[in-house]
Amino acid sequence: MAGLTLFLLSSPAVSQSYQVGILAPRGESHSQAEWAPTLTLLNRRFSEHEFIAHYLTQTQLDAALELQQLDFVVTNPMHFMLSHGQQLNWLVSYLDSHYGQARASVAGTLWVRGDSDIIEPEQLSSYPVAAVHERAFGGYLMVADQLRRRGIFPENLDIEFHDYPLDSLVYALEKRSVAAVMLPSCVLEDMAGEGLINLADFSALMVQSHSPCMRSTPLYPGWSFASVGDLDESLLRSITQTLLNFEVDNRPQWGAPVRLDEVAQLLMDWQLAPRASPMAHWQLLSGFIEQHWPWLSGFMLLLLGHLLYHSRVAVLLRRRTKECEQLHSQVQQKEQALAHARQRVLMGEMATGLAHELNQPLSAIQAYAQAGELIEDAAQRSTAFSQIVAETERGAAIIRRFRRWATEALPSAEPIDLSVLCQELVTRLAPRASAQGVVIKVQGLGATASTLFSVRLAIEQILNNLLNNALEAHARQLAINNSHQGWIKLELSQCEKAWQIAISDNAGGIDAAIIETLQHNMPASHYHGLGIGLLVSHRLVLRLQAKMRINNIPHGTQVCVSFSESASFG
Hints:
By secondary structure, the protein is α/β, with parallel strands linked by helices. The protein is built from 16 helices and 20 strands.
């Protein structure tokens, strides 16, 4: 490393000189012989420039990149990815001579001596194991990853890191200084081919088949030729084209860059993948904003316009809702006033009819009384008085007829099947409800022994009035809101020797004053403001000595009528 620094300081600062850092796992002399054809090609093809090679260990190569002393590097893919912070640009991938490709040309091998007692990797825990570097791609990371997959963790092994060159690890194994070594594949085959060792003296563990060289791991992408920093793009393009066309003995030396997904996954498994700093994230975001600011501005304006439109719609909706509530309140007030007017008209008609009917007997009584004063004959006077009595009885009959709806006696009590009665009423009202779009729901009508001893006509009148009131309320709601979806629920249940019939709806509820009036069981003279149907129903409930409870529920009304199993009446 010191030699590289002195060389760079002593070299003339000319723009045509480029420094090429080459990872030398087997030492400078071996790497020089391996990469000399490539350097010769570049110097011959680009004669106006000078490409100077520096054969370095992994530590030296990292230091040179950190000091920005290199223009190009030749290294393995793991080292390339870990050096992304140095602005490396991958130009081409090396076509390994053993595998003939770049996509799958690097692997790792776990070697022991051929006469060793170690035949399985699980036996390594009690022996020293050697590797070149803790971040060596083929010499440690890949083999250790395979051991870890077998449940053999590196922290449980006695691993020694001997640094470069790789040949020293082979000699240490040969001399039994260590029990096993982790090496890139094909290293021992190359050393045996060079006459440095006898391959038969060594044995590989975790061997994977179908490979030109013994290997203990899957194959990974091969070495790369990369530029450092911002170099002239035309020069980089020319270098790439030159290397892609370079052949030795009719065999291409370089190919197109390949993907490094497997390498990235391996680094992530070892938690060695480079992480971007918060500043880098901010720079990336700033660059994106600067590049796409017209589109981002348009999007922000569109988003702002959408928010303003949404706000305006919300304000208008609240305003319309408030107006609708006010209008609904006014409509309810008008309906109440109309109902009161109808009651007054009804009472007026009843009073007019009663007066009209009573006027005749009263006029006759007056006429007979005046005639009786003038008649001297006793027999004729007696006849006049008899007519007065007859007309008096006639007037009484008229009054009784007008009061009959409130005073006539109830029919006799009889056993009533409430379930059947309720179902008959629902069936009878179904066509009318369907025409209004109202759904009638029933619940508990299949209950057994739903028998009540009471007056059928009275109970039928009560339920019929309540159901009709609910339908009329829905009709009013539908006139206000044509999208109103109404429902009426009739529920039959038994509770403590009593039957309860609950009729619920979502027709808007009734006035609280009416509920208050009915809760106090007011006499007939206090039923001011009630509908005739509800008035009659309440009177009949009281006559049956039953109970009726009215409550406003969300969006509607619930009327509950409770009958004892043996309802008496008066």
